[in-house]
Amino acid sequence: MTDTATAHAARETRGFQAEVKQLLHLMIHSLYSNREIFLRELISNASDACDKLRFEALSDAKLFEDDTALAIRVDYDKEARTLTVVDNGVGMSREEVIANLGTIAKSGTREFFSALTGDQQKDAHLIGQFGVGFYSSFIVADKVTVLTRRAGRPAAEGVRWESDGSGEFTVETVERAARGTEITLHLREGQDDLLEGTRIRAIIRRYSDHIVQPIRMPKEEWKDGRMEKGTEPETVNQASALWARAKADIKDEEYKEFYKHVGHDFEDPLAWAHARVEGRQEYTQLLYIPSRAPFDLWDRNARHGVKLYVRRVFIMDDAEQLLPVYLRFVRGVVDSADLPLNVSREILQESKDIEAIRAGCTKKVLALLEGLAENEKAKYADFWKAFGRVLKEGVGEDFANKEKIAGLLRFASTHADTAEETVSLADYASRMKEGQEAIYYVTAETFNAARNSPHLEVFRKKGIEVLLLSDRVDEWVVSHLTEFGGKPLESVARGGLDLGKLEDEAEKKAIEQEAGELKGLTDRIQASLGERVKEVRVTHRLTESPACLVADEHDVSANLARLLKAAGQQAPASKPILEINPRHPVVLRLKDEEAKFDDWASVLFDQAMLAEGGTLDDPAAFVRRINGLMMDLGGGGSRIVLPG
Ligand code: ADP
Description:
The protein is of the alpha+beta class. 38% of the residues lie in helices and 20% in strands. It has a nine-stranded mixed beta sheet. Helix 3 crosses helix 8, helix 11 (352-375) packs across helix 12 and helix 23 (597-611) packs across helix 24. The chain is elongated, with a radius of gyration of 33 Å. Residues 41, 45-46, 49, 87, 89-92, 100, 131, 133-135, 181, 264 line the site of adenosine-5'-diphosphate.
């Protein structure tokens, strides 16, 4: 016991986690041109620490230690060349210091960082995604000293941390009367501007004006004809909750800086919505759409990013109940006037009041997106690129807003030339042909596979637009979105093709007649393929290809079956239907084939599988058959000379 206690108090030197070393090095170089942001990061952490203390003190008032006036202090010392940021927030224990200031603690961050290429690591934007945080101190400092004490712990449990940022840090347990954290930066050569009171004030006003706690600095005074640091403190920020101020009084720049604080982001947001809602629940919402997707967007359990306040008191981060999962990219603040201060996550889960707030926030975000889609198309395109795939989840998750979400979806289409040009369902509907009753789509694993799918041939011929769906989630989307604006969504690769009024009767008759004539052939192919197919039939879907595969009306599509398989899930066994083009020369030739009929039938099936992006059970057999048939085509005894 005594041994460990002594070891504990002793000064120990530890190495940074490898990724921290790398991150520190890169940060200093890639963020140097923005070096003054370190102050925003330190003040932001100090503010969070005050929020955390206020929240923890709701259930344990002793933590305040008779000092409830939470504040942040910034000071500088020209002689010592130091800049200091002090808060009387929650502070850190020794274990917390080691975990927070020695590793990259956030789950997934390390993996993400390791996966970046050298060039990507130099990209300030990507580095910024980590929430540059505390480590940004080393952009301007060659030594950083942290003194801290966790609220509620005895003075003997203070902690001193120090590092020059090159690879190691020291920690020791020290006596510290003051609660909270004091961070001292020993500035590098050439950072003298950061030792000027006016310059520091300007940085604080620019980046941290919105911070709720007062940020205090020593007043400047005239001494011997010069401005010098005085002894009286003064508050240099507005120190009021930004979201509680009237919209008209808030500048865009202030909204943007506030976003960087709540969103832990380095970049400006794409858009935001700020409103006070009155009604059954009274609350203020300030919700932001980021410009870029965070690296952990795909983790549905990742931080949700909306902070909950009750009458300006911070209650919790990542209040996942405030927005549905498919809007997890939204950042911001909700401040309720009605919820009790002691509200917990468990209470939120069941609260009817929260349901009302959540519905209101969802509506607000969707309206913000609708506004962008309508009025700022380029911005909406950026949004769609970053978050479209997440928004799609909403189609199946949010029944009440399904139609709205469907209106916000964008898809590649045969109407455009590239995967990047997308159309909305409303665009599609406005271009529907006279007599067209459905919105048609094809699903495939890639854009090219979708665009070149044989299933599109007849649609191309008739000039009917088809949506090209190649996102993994698209299969799921269309299973939930069966209609839009009263028009059904139909797969071009499923069931018998019925183009309804788009086909003329004479054409239909002709096909039926051809089907009758080829009955003998389709039966023979079916017998030859046996268990591989559910049925073989004649189609009028194809104009150029000899054959294609379709799924029966209620079967799982081949694309979905492939996706499930790739994800290691059992796909329900369903056999495809082979459809053949009665006018294709290969098909016509087959009528008279005897000796190699089985090979022809197999090749027909396999190439239909390949054409829609499928894989063959036995590729070698396919190659052998193709080669055999190619040799025959040589005909009349002439030989094909194979290389080698
Ligand atoms: P981030 O703030 O994005 O989590 P940082 O590297 O800035 O990342 O900080 C890491 C952690 O260190 C914070 O999450 C917080 O737990 C702790 N921390 C940093 N500064 C303070 C402070 N002034 N008071 C208390 N804890 C702090």
